[in-house]
Amino acid sequence: MFYREAGDFKTTYRDDGQTFPIRLDRWGYYVILAAAFLVVPIYIDAYWANAVLVPFLIYAIAALGLNVLTGYAGQVSLGTGGFMAVGAYAVYKLMTSFPEVSIVIHILLAGGITAAVGVLFGLPSLRIKGFYLAVATLAAQFFLVWLFNKVPWFYNYSASGQITAPTRRVFGYAVTGPTTSAPAKYLICLCFLFVLAWAVRNLTRGTLGRKWMAIRDMDIAAEIIGVNPLTAKLSAFAVSSFLIGIAGALLFAVYLGAADANEAFGINKSFLVLFMIIIGGLGSIFGSFAGAAFLVLLPVLLKNILVGSFGWPTNLAAHIELMIVGALIVFFLIVEPHGLARLWQLTKEKLRLWPFPH
Amino acid sequence: MDQLFFAAEVFLNGLMAGVMYSLVALGFVLIFKASGVFNYAQGVLALFAALTLVGIQQGQVPFAHLINAMFGTNLHHFGWTVPSILAIALTAGIMVLLAFLIEKLVLQHLVGQEPIILFMATIGLAYFLEGMGDVMWGADIKTLDVGLPQGISDTVETMTADWLGYGFFLDRLDIWATMIAALLVAALVAFAQYTKQGRAMRAVADDHQAALSVGISLRFIWVMVWSIAGFVALVAGIMWGTKSGVQFSLSLIALKALPVLMLGGFTSIPGAIVGGLIIGVGEKLFEFWIGPLVGGATENWFAYVLALVFLVFRPQGLFGERIIERV
Amino acid sequence: MNQQMQDGHVTADGRQIGGVLMDMKNITLRFGGVVAIKDISFDIRQGEIRAIIGPNGAGKSSMLNVISGFYVPQEGEVWFRGEKRGPMRPYQVARLGIARTFQNIALFDGMTVLDNIMTGRLNRMKAGFFSQALWWGRAEREENENREQVEKIIDFLEIQNIRKTPVGRLPYGLKKRVELARALAAEPQLLLLDEPMAGMNVEEKEDMSRFILDVNDEFGTTIALIEHDMGVVMDLSDRVVVMDYGRKIGDGTPDEVRSNQEVIDAYLGVAHD
């Protein structure tokens, strides 16, 4: 069984346009899905859920969101943290105001609200481009975090200024609040990620995705072939913010349980997600996953080695992590601007020719 | 009447903060003009410079934490203190070395990349430098004192009280910082206009190829502008570090130079100066009048929102050149 | 000077030339104080190949940019299919059925050849957002139908083997061909070509000329092109507009233009007074 398309003839354009045109890829995908949905929930424990899997799933959603905007539509945003905060505070207000409504609906609505805020802050993208826009999105970052800290209505006038997620259930199982089990946290995040990733894949391979990429690659030419830059850019902001809002809502409600806008959604969060898509690969869905996995695992790994094995202080490990992440960003931009996704693709291309490379 | 004087005092304080913004923004403009790099790491450079200065001054052992962790030693200080002037000179030297390394290890390999890629690389650089500063000197908040006068200026207070019947409260440090910054701004402008290196720098900014063809070394120019930016960062680091301690938030203050630039236009030296003053005065007055109504701390975002709104109406900034799009 | 042609005129090689498709009336375009186009009028008829020629800086590209809506002239009117065109953004002009190529190739480098050509059909795909997100119903149907059309163009321009190659990796000549394919995919009423032969060798020029003639012949597409190379233009086009320093100095069949004294002067470089 070789990894290649030979002998796997496509007879319709439908077959040719599918997500995994190579049979082995398709099988691999089904195996991973089955394992993720059926096997992992049985064995998952609190450590794996909290340290690795749940943050990975949530950041993968955020990275997908930012990749839509930056990787596909070419609009660099440094406001991810602020938009995640919108999702978190929206879901908090909805949860506490309408406790009888399902949390799933609240999370989706939180995404919708974030999408609206994203469109609002995306409006300047029609006039300003490149790093002018990147700096302009800093306005969203700093303003939104300030807003959630300063206006008590957003945190229900709690004394600490924090928001805390009450217990909410799906099919009788708690998915938020202190009693949530590890499998429940994992599964709700996995379900959201699966559906959203699938929808993003569909959007990016169709009309809307082509409009985004056209704007990214050459905006003037895109306009001259009939792409309306207004709708193309704003739809990218909306879809991107929708995902980022959901990621923020899940991060707060399911993962953290309690959050403070400044600490949980500061500018470092914006950079973390941006780094995920740079390391993973701009304009690649696989890259969003790979980048999120990499930057979630790296600190865990470093902590295990430096703190666990060598016995170094935790804060020293954290500072070394900063250096490594920074150096990796520069390294990837210099050596492989298309990130891990490109490396994966190259490996697959080599594999297709194996064992006769010439 | 008192209210008016109060506002005037806020205005003056804003103007003084603005001069500092202008200075840092000038560091950006120089790098942007000479190499097309939009240097996000400028703020972290200021932090790094201040950390290094404190470290040298107090005789800290660099990488002490790392060495201690690796070898189980208990190093902290060499046990000496270095005079401020010498420490500043040494730090300036380190900033030049840093500029050289950045050119050698990062910029050289990114020549000809898209500006946005370069921008993201400087974000990575910012992370690296922040981590390195912490690993080298420790992440605790440090006080910095190079002998600059501090506290409310009695002279100004008594003088204004005599003349106007209202004593203006101005920090002596701010007054000094403003004078030094204004001097540096003037020196930088003079450097760019009248020296041979300055002319070469402007030539590079106009056209890389043409500059190369008349024998200007791009690498030299880049190392030079990054050194200047490092030096400017050092001065900013000293001023802000003296005022509020050397800590991470210092790099965020220096980031205010970004909206300053958007306001002034990335390529304009007068733009950086005027933009800095507008932002400095604007955010202080906004905090003074509107701040109390909305819970304060508006300085965190005012500059960015102002720049954002401004750019929507005038994308090229105050003094930037109008962009004519061509097919 | 303006040669009168009858509606329903048939060319020597048997192609139908119809009524006026596009009418440019007294167009003047200025950039600040510089006058790029000065009071120029001409028309383009259904089914013809119309060339705009002139020396460097004559204002040819500006004229093409006015037609495609990228520049808005200060004076004058643009009539298309018998209607006066109001002030429009370029994407609205594209939706009227005007497609173009660019002198300095404006392809989307990050996308494959197939995706680039598919962008030419964006305006024909109407599936809603949710249909696209679910890849169900209209979105999937449209994708496959339009793919079929695009494949026809790929066959026509003989670029089957590079379908899935990212455009950024292609050589110059092929890029030009892909760009033509993208414009054709829109099935335009009027196709604008901005120096289609620029930077090509003789063989590539011949190929391109053949494609242009075939497009005009097989699809009946009206073509307006700008070209530097007098020889090629005279062989290809039905009528030629000659511009010099923003003015129109000649208009007519290739033979008429060739014998026009002012045109000869402009090309041979007689001093302007």
Describe the structure.
Chain B: Keywords: Amino-acid transport, Cell membrane, Membrane, Transmembrane, Transmembrane helix, Transport. The complex is a heterotrimer of chains A (358), B (327) and C (273). Helix content of chain A is 73%, strand content 3%. Chain A is mainly alpha-helical. Chain A starts with 12 loop residues before the first helix and ends in a 5-residue tail after the last helix. Chain B is mainly alpha-helical and 327 residues long. Chain B has one domain: ABC transporter involved in vitamin B12 uptake, BtuC, CATH 1.10.3470. With 273 residues, chain C is of the alpha/beta class. Chain C has a single domain, classed as Rossmann fold. In chain C, a hairpin with a 2-residue loop joins strand 6 (75-80) and strand 7 (83-84). Residues 1-6 of chain C have low confidence and may be disordered.
Layout of helices and strands, plus pairs?
The complex is a heterotrimer of chains A (358), B (327) and C (273).
Chain A lengths: L12 H4 L6 H21 L2 H27 L7 H18 L5 H20 L7 H21 L12 E2 L3 E3 L2 E4 L5 H24 L1 H11 L1 H6 L4 H28 L1 E2 L1 H4 L2 H14 L4 H25 L4 H22 L3 H15 L5
Antiparallel strand pairs in A: 1-4, 2-3
Chain B lengths: L1 H34 L6 H16 L6 H8 L12 H22 L9 H23 L16 H11 L7 H23 L1 H11 L1 H6 L4 H27 L4 H7 L1 H8 L4 H21 L1 H4 L7 H12 L14
Helix pairs in contact in B: 1-7, 1-8, 1-10, 1-12, 1-13, 2-4, 2-5, 2-10, 2-11, 4-10, 7-8, 7-10, 12-13, 12-15
Chain C lengths: L8 E2 L5 E2 L2 E12 L2 E12 L3 E5 L6 H8 L7 E6 L2 E2 L5 H6 L2 E3 L12 H7 L9 H6 L3 H19 L15 H14 L4 E5 L7 H18 L2 E6 L2 H7 L2 E6 L2 E6 L1 H5 L2 H8 L5
Parallel strand pairs in C: 5-10, 5-11, 8-9, 9-10
Antiparallel strand pairs in C: 1-2, 3-4, 3-6, 6-7, 11-12
Helix pairs in contact in C: 3-6
InterPro entries (chain A): ABC_transp_permease (IPR001851), LivM-like (IPR043428)
Subcellular location (chain A): Cell membrane
Organism (chain A): Paracoccus siganidrum
